[in-house]
Amino acid sequence: MGVTAVVVAVLTGGWALVNSALPETEEMAEGQSMVLGSSETHEASVTFDDGWELDTGSSSQGQQYLFTKGPVNLMVSVVRPVESATATELWEGMRDIVRVGDASAALGEPQPITSESGAEGLTGDMYIRQHTGSATVFPAPREDFAVEAQVFGADASQTELADAEKLLQSLRFDRSSGGTS
């Protein structure tokens, strides 16, 4: 019994030590592009400017990413509707999901947005408690997946929040060689 307890203690302590040694964030280099998700026909990617980090502990490849830059948090999710969905339908779905996550949360009225590469979507204010952020959704060209983003930062200035909007402006959908991620 004593040997078992020692083995369990060593394994538990060892994993905790390994976990603490692993970095929780990964710096995204200026000019670096990252594929967020893909379908059989398209892949969605963004290109970073200086100062962004990926929170690896809160991210899951091809599904959800938390990017940070100073006090700004940018949560990006790749969603796959059961059937094709327009930007308006995706916005309404995001409105419901935001409320489930926090009863005080609400999305404002969406406005059209076009990324630098021509991807079309919707963007608008997001209200959580006394804070205002923004939400954005870009459906893929065939509407078989979409990129949804929520920007928030309780202590962030408008200039700092604009950095997240700039990153979202870099979103592009390129033809993919197949497969999903």
Q: Which stretches are poorly predicted, pLDDT < 50 over at least 5 residues?
A: 3-22
Number of domains: 1
Structural class: alpha+beta
Count of individual helical segments: 3
- Name of the CATH architecture: 3-Layer(aba) Sandwich
CATH superfamily: Mog1/PsbP, alpha/beta/alpha sandwich
The geometry reads as globular
- Overall strand count: 12
Provide tags for this entry.
Protein Transport Mog1p, Chain A; three-stranded antiparallel sheet; 37% strand; disordered N terminus; Secreted protein; 181 residues; alpha+beta; nine-stranded antiparallel sheet
Please, could you describe this protein's structure?
This is Secreted protein. It comes from Nocardiopsis exhalans. By secondary structure, this protein is an alpha+beta fold. It has a single domain (24-175), classed as Protein Transport Mog1p, Chain A (3-Layer(aba) Sandwich). It is 26% helix and 37% strand. The protein contains three helices and twelve strands. Strands 1, 4, 5, 6, 7, 8, 9, 10 and 11 form a nine-stranded antiparallel sheet that branches. The longest helix has 20 residues, at 2-21. It is globular, with a radius of gyration of 19 Å. The relative contact order is 0.20.
